[in-house]
Amino acid sequence: MNTLNLARPAEEVAPELLGSILTHKSPEGTVSISITETEAYSGAADPASHAYRGRTPRNAVMFGPAGHLYVYRSHGLHWCANIVTGTDGIASAVLVRAGRIVEGEDLARKRRGDKVESARLARGPGNFCQALGITAEHDGTDLLAGASVTLSDGEPVPAALIRIGPRVGVSRAHDWQHRFFVAGDPTVSAYRLSPRAKPSAGA
Q1: Which intervals of the chain form a coiled coil (predicted)?
Q2: pTM
Q3: For 57-116, what is each residue's pLDDT tens digit?
Q4: CATH number, residue 35
Q5: Contacts made by residues 167-171, CB under 8 angstroms, sequence distance 24+
Q6: How far apart are CA 37 and CA 49, in angstroms?
């Protein structure tokens, strides 16, 4: 069960998602991951958002009700998972960037590779989805309805351990302080400035 109010702006929800748990129950088994890093993305006011130029078949889930999963392919290689937030009809979502495996590490390792260190199994948005077994078929899943992929409460992260910084790898609005992560956690991905980054005004 998730008691977090997701029907708020992404930048408000993103830090509170730290410590929450995403679980995928598949025919292969169950994997649960405690979220340690997130990034907030708005809609028309956010140049880095997929919804910046309006609604399309690809980003339609972002415009729907809060609590659904928005899944997209990054650079044609990796699936990325976002938790939709805000008001129905207004695009808003939180990208899940990293997490710590709390159940099903053997299955996550099978998906990621035998030689991958535990801390790196779900480090980075693409690795997170691979470890959890998330693909395009999960786009639009209601995380609060008891489907195969669910969002639930975990151990709350103390405010003193939450850090804020610029978003990783985006070329627009990269300097917006919309990335949230658990200080000192080895599963958190390294900051990387996109070589195509352009100057922008802060949010």
Answers
A1: none
A2: 0.92
A3: 888 998 889 999 999 988 768 899 999 999 988 889 999 999 999 999 999 999 999 999
A4: 3.10.300.10
A5: 167/39, 167/48, 168/39, 168/97, 168/192, 169/193, 169/194, 170/48, 170/194, 170/197, 171/48, 171/196, 171/197, 171/198
A6: 18
